[in-house]
Amino acid sequence: MSVYAKDNPLFLNESLESIFSQTVEAADVVLLEDGPLTDALYEIINGFSKKYDTLKVIPFPVNRGLGKTLNEGLSYCKYDIIARMDADDICKPNRFEVEYNWLKTHEDYDLVGAWIDEFIDDKYHVKSIRKVPASSEEIKLYAQHRCPVNHPTVMFRRSSVLAVGGYLTEYFPEDYFLWIRMLMNGSKFYNIQESLLWFRYSEDTVSKRGGWSYACDEVCIQLRMLKIGFISIPVFCENVVIRFITRILPLPIRKRLYKLIRKV
Fold it and tell me: What residue stretches are annotated with the Glycosyltransferase 2-like domain (predicted)?
């Protein structure tokens, strides 16, 4: 998990509580401080550090962004199987158990994810569910058009992530192109067909995923996907038109589209 100064202390507390309340306990929890934090965040982290010996806190002197922080954070993880988590989401109690057991019984797979329940204020009032396909074949096809796994739910083998160079940090979102490179490298993915995480949705969620900069990053990712042979020219043209236009649409229209796509 990576945390930075703008994270909400109350959300971080809920997130950490969900990690330490799993039906299968994590042997090692690595919390990366991406630059100086607020006093309130430090208070939350110190409280958990005193309570749980398995929590390892790694401070970084300056904020460098999620991709770079996660890349360096991989070196601080003791074990090959790693669960990702964000500082404002909430794991369901059985998330680690379900995902870990799946990977342990499917040794030819490198990553497992799950659906997410999206909520605004109350995690029990789910607004939408982001469903992703199950089989590795379906995931690879789906990945030609959209991100095939929900990043905060993934549990992966570190060796397979490092084999493709980890997260590339030039473009956003960093995780999407990581999954593509892993799939191109022969990794097999699976998505549990149930929600294992409550994802905190806010008005900023859609606003952050738009604008000219985000749209240009989308085009760059599509170009890379084309160059490495992951997509064909027709798929590239289709993706650029749809995704670029969507990103530069006025925010109210993007919000309506997002709600339509995520409809439960």
Answer: 9-161
